[in-house]
Amino acid sequence: MNTILIKPIITEKSMRLAKTGVFCFFVANKATKGAVSDAIHTQFGVDVTEVRTSKTYPKIKRSMTKTKRSFKTAPYKKALVMIKKGQKIPLFELGEDKESKAKKS
Q1: Rounded to two decimals, what is the model's pTM?
Q2: Residue 71 is inside which H or E element, if any?
Q3: A Gene Ontology molecular-function term (predicted)?
Q4: Where are the domains of the chain?
Q5: I need a labelling partner for 90 at 20 to 30 A (CA). Which of 19, 23, 34, 47 fits?
Q6: How far apart are CA 95 and CA 47, in angstroms?
Q7: What is the pLDDT of residues 78-90, one digit of tens each?
């Protein structure tokens, strides 16, 4: 069951969204919204209100070296998970602490 959630997405934009109660995760390509919701609820113990998914397909890229080799990028699926107000996921609290310290300085 833990294979549904691959890893959290930790970027500046995802940390901004985490303050509003929206958390970003890379999920398995065949994961459904219901399965993502259940996995978040069991792993972190929070109540999920909404799940949005986005799928990115592989693209063919060419290298700019003399050999001109081409390769495919990896496909992935990400989920934006909204939880109830007042609840938090501890993975995303680290970034908030750093920003609050920077503002105080």
Answers
A1: 0.77
A2: strand 70-72
A3: structural constituent of ribosome
A4: 5-104
A5: 34
A6: 22
A7: 999 999 998 988 8
Among 2, 11, 59, 53, smallest CA distance to 29 is for: 53
Structure tokens at 1: 């069951």
**Contact status, residue 53 vs residue 26, Cβ threshold 8 Å:** no
Q: Six-digit token pair at 45? A: 């113990």
Nearest CA-CA partner of 24 in 77, 80, 95? 80
Fold of 5-104: Alpha-Beta Plaits (3.30.70)
Cβ burial of 48 (10 Å; 0-12, 13-18, 19+) is buried
Residue 75 burial (CB count, 10 A):
11
